[in-house]
Specification:
Layout: H1 7-59, H2 66-83, E1 91-95, E2 101-106, H3 107-110, H4 117-120, E3 125-130, E4 138-145, E5 148-155, H5 157-205, H6 223-271, H7 277-308, E6 317-319, H8 321-338, E7 342-347, E8 354-356, H9 358-374, E9 381-389, E10 394-401, H10 433-443, E11 447-453, E12 457-465
Parallel strand pairs: 7-9
Antiparallel strand pairs: 1-2, 1-5, 3-4, 4-5, 6-8, 9-10, 10-12, 11-12
The protein binds adenosine-5'-diphosphate.
Length: 468
């Protein structure tokens, strides 16, 4: 199996690489500056004897003989070589105006150097490095003086030592600094990752049966604390929906059990003795009725489950509610006529479109009209009203009946799932119609509420915002 580096190790490595690059760049820069400084110092030091010899030549009286002049120069050169530090290994040469060597003393006596050709050209002095076969180079100054040229050379070992001290210092400091920064990186990363370890440990404990675990928060408000808070909020939502699903399936199973038990006992009682074909017919019709009710109930449950999972926003379209309500009213007209209940639609002329799922909104209004017809005795009436409320930016639909009404303490509870005000008066409903209606209205950004007067009737008001 491939081993993965921990975040702590990755940060340690990153710190080390960044430190290595920056220290190396700094080292190169500092070394270059010091090298230049050393060369500058070497030039100054090599220039001093050259200037002294040149001054001695200038001081000698004019018109002296050539041999006398050479002696003055020789004295000056000897003085300089004798006074110089031994490990500088000073060497001095004097050339005549044609560039021929006249005198050489000190280190240049055994290892004579040619005159720097540049000085023979048009420049007055030059500084250069000469390799005389020793471990370090010689730094040489060549200069034009009255009556010829002077060339001085000093040994570069002392200067090279300065540079190598610095290089050695860097080479020693580099691994120590690398180790320190890598350790620091690892330590810092571990410290800031501790909350993540706590989150991982909590997540490990979370399972389908244990959703109560909470990630500890520090209250610091930093990114990791925010992550912990967000995870806790997410867990709370999951807990809530799992609890809802459990409640829902429990309630649904309970609701289905009653009609199934009724069917079973009907069949059992019928089978106890021989029956006439007419009796069988009657029992089968009753069973068929129960099965139809079950089918309607499971259908409603399925729709409720689907609506809770969220209505598909892709299936939404601008809807003309007037046309939709005409369809609903037309569908229920035969039933209303059958029950001797007057059903009519009163719709304002121009009502803006609503963005929504056609089938869902159809379901919503069908549930309301169905209930209104169910709970309105013969001779009553059910009115469906449609109007726009531009101030609210919404469309209002009111389903009003002159039925039995709803007691005040029941008005909110009827929107709960499986809640029936009174099983005996309810026409064998499942108690999910209004829960589904509210779910659909909510999914469309709207709301539904009820006003009612027991014994005189109810009005269900649906508010749906205009489609954009
Ligand atoms: P069901 O499928 O049983 O009709 P609903 O959720 O549609 O369930 O309704 C819940 C309860 O609210 C019903 O049992 C009924 O008692 C009451 N209810 C709904 N609409 C009306 C109405 N228009 N008039 C009186 N009671 C109503």
């Amino acid at each position: 199996m491939r081993r993965h580096l921990s975040i702590g190790a990755k940060w340690a490595l990153r710190y080390a690489v960044v430190t290595f690059v920056s220290i190396s760049l700094l080292g190169i820069y500092v070394y270059d500056r010091i090298q230049r400084r050393i060369l500058h110092d070497a030039e100054l030091i090599a220039e001093i004897p050259m200037r002294n010899v040149s001054a001695a030549i200038r001081r000698s009286p004019e018109g002296i003989e050539a041999a006398e002049a050479i002696r003055v120069i020789e004295d000056a050169i000897n003085r300089e070589v004798g006074a110089a530090d031994r490990d500088l290994r000073l060497g001095i040469q004097f050339f005549d105006p044609n560039g021929h060597l006249v005198l050489a003393r000190g280190s240049l006596q055994e290892n004579p150097l040619p005159l720097d050709s540049d000085v023979l050209g048009d420049r007055d002095s030059d500084f250069w490095e000469a390799d005389l076969g020793e471990s370090s180079p010689f730094y040489v100054v060549s200069a034009r003086v009255p009556g010829g040229f002077v060339q001085t050379a000093i040994y570069g070992r002392r200067f090279a030592q300065h540079a190598s001290y610095i290089v050695d210092g860097f080479l020693l400091a580099l691994p120590i600094t690398l180790l320190l920064t890598a350790g620091l990186g690892w330590f810092l990363a571990r410290g800031s990752l501790r909350p993540i370890q706590r989150i991982t440990a909590t997540a490990r404990h979370i399972s389908g049966s244990n959703l109560d675990a909470e990630v500890p928060t520090t209250g610091s408000g930093d990114e990791l604390d925010q992550l912990a808070v967000t995870l806790n909020e997410m867990m709370a939502r999951i807990r809530e929906s799992v609890a809802r699903i459990r409640r829902f399936s429990g309630d649904a199973a309970h609701e289905l059990r009653t009609p199934l038990a009724a069917i079973r006992s009907q069949i059992e009682v019928t089978l106890e003795k021989a029956r006439t074909p007419e009796e069988y017919d009657q029992v089968l019709l009753q069973v068929l009725d129960e099965v139809d009710r079950l089918a309607r109930g499971t259908d409603a449950l399925l729709r409720l489950a689907r609506s809770e999972a969220g209505l598909d926003p892709a299936g939404r379209e601008p809807l003309d509610l007037r046309a939709l309500l005409v369809e609903v009213v037309d569908f229920f007209s035969p039933l209303a006529a059958d029950r001797d209940v007057k059903l009519e639609l009163r719709a304002a002329e121009a009502v803006p479109a609503v963005m929504g799922g056609r089938e869902w909104l159809h379901q919503l209004f069908a549930n309301l009209v169905d209930n209104a017809l169910k709970f309105t005795p013969a001779g009553g009436s059910v009115g469906v009203e449609l109007a726009a409320d531009p101030k609210q930016g919404a469309v209002l639909v009111c389903v009003r009946d002159t039925g039995i009404g709803i007691e005040p303490d029941q008005r909110e509870r009827i929107f709960e799932r499986f809640h029936k005000v009174d099983a005996s008066r309810s026409e064998a409903g499942f108690g999910v119609g209004l829960a589904l209606a509210r779910e659909i209205a909510k999914a469309h950004g709207g709301s539904i509420r009820v006003e009612s007067e027991p014994g005189r009737g109810s009005a269900f008001r649906v508010v749906l915002p205009f489609g954009s």
